[in-house]
Write a structure and sequence with these properties.
Radius of gyration: 15 Å
Strand order of the largest sheet: 1-2-3
Strand content: 25-35%
Helix content: 25-40%
Largest sheet: 3 strands, antiparallel
Structural class: alpha+beta
Number of helices: 2
């Protein structure tokens, strides 16, 4: 059973479920928009992506964040996906992350974009 994120109830009053592809997307989103230290039992879980908005934009910072996200996704989700490409951009108060990965179970390549206004 894959619990849908964010947690909610379906029209039957039960915990909402989702398919495997949406569940993988949900797990990636949780990793991206969680800061390190937010989870009590996993203090090193999270990308710190939201802190990018407050940092000065530079190619070096973008490269560092991209490598950090790719390494984190490989660490936490390597049993589910193989990350191929990560691109992160910050414009004004909007963060955009484009992630390309292969689902291990099906060998299908997926590309997803996450946008967060902060």
């Amino acid at each position: 059973m894959n619990v849908d994120f964010p947690f909610h109830f379906d029209n039957r009053g039960r915990t909402a479920e989702t398919d495997d592809d949406d569940h993988i997307r949900d797990m990636i989103e949780q990793f991206l928009f969680t800061n390190s230290g937010e989870r009590v039992n996993r203090p090193d879980f999270g990308s710190g992506l939201l802190q990018l908005v407050f940092a000065p934009n530079s190619p070096e910072l973008a490269a560092t964040v991209q490598f950090t996200i790719q390494a984190g996704l490989q660490r936490w989700l390597s049993d589910v996906i193989l990350v191929q490409k990560v691109e992160v951009t910050s414009e004004d108060s909007t963060l955009r992350a484009v992630i390309q990965y292969v689902v291990n179970r099906t060998n299908q390549t997926q590309t997803i974009t996450f946008t967060q206004n902060v």
